[in-house]
Amino acid sequence: MDANPKPPLVEIIPDDGVELALAYATAENFTGRPVYAAARCYLHPDAAACLRNAIALAERFGCRFRIFDGFRPAEAQQILWDACPDPDFLADPKKGSPHSRGAAVDLTLLDATGRALDMGTPFDAFTPLSHHGNGDVSLEAQRNRLFLLGLMTDAGWDFYRNEWWHYQLFDAKRYPLLHDAELGLGMLGSPA
Questions:
Q1: What is the pLDDT of the chain when averaged over all its residues?
Q2: Cut 0.85: pTM above it
Q3: Neighbours of 53 (CB within 10 A)
Q4: Which residue, 55, 173, 166, is CA-closest to 119?
Q5: 188 touches 144 (CB < 8 A)
Q6: Are 41 and 16 a contacting pair, CB within 8 Å?
Q7: Which positions are catalytic?
Q8: What is the three-state SS of the chain?
């Protein structure tokens, strides 16, 4: 048995070289209301290591990441599913989401001036235009998606073909589903 087990999640903060724009901590998401009471981003230590790799790669190109979501408590996944039960864009909570395992991140790229690169659709645009490889978005957006895909896959991430913003660890189901209450993170409840 490991005498020093890894903590279940680590917090990702701006000092890590990212911008946090956690959509579900605001009403600026497809539910129209805050889902998280706390605007904090967590990942499993394995995912945090892959994110650090991606950050280092992006820095070489003068870019950084804006993170929209990381760990999503299983209870929050149910809230999102209840608002939009579309298996093309959301994991059925009965099966579990890679986000609810701390093994996924939703993000985009920012250029050296802090401007988001054009990806053809906004985050959480649940349409076929959001699919990787969709030729109906501009050539610039296609290039930017491929650039993001290259950075993330080189850093050790797998991708979800329907969402240009979603990356997850390979074999994410090997990580346990996590709940806000058992972790004591205070992500759910009444928004402050």
A1: 92
A2: yes
A3: 16
A4: 166
A5: no
A6: no
A7: 163
A8: CCCCCCCCCEEECHHHCEEECCHHHCCCCCCCCCCCCCCCEEECHHHHHHHHHHHHHHHHCCCEEEEEECCCCHHHHHHHHHHCCCCCCCCCCCCCCCHHHCCEEEEEEECCCCCECCCCCCCCCCCHHHCCCCCCCCHHHHHHHHHHHHHHHHCCCEECCCCCCEEECCCHHHCCCCCHHHHCCCCCCCCC
Task: Give the separation between CA 163 and CA 153, rounded to whole angstroms.
Answer: 14
Residue 144, token pair as written in the block = 């930017």
Q: Which tens digit of pLDDT belongs to each residue from 14-44?
A: 998 999 999 999 999 999 999 999 899 999 9
Tokens encoding 105: 């991140």
Q: Which domains does the chain have, with CATH numbers?
A: 10-183 (3.30.1380.10)
Q: How far apart are CA 89 and CA 93, in angstroms?
A: 12
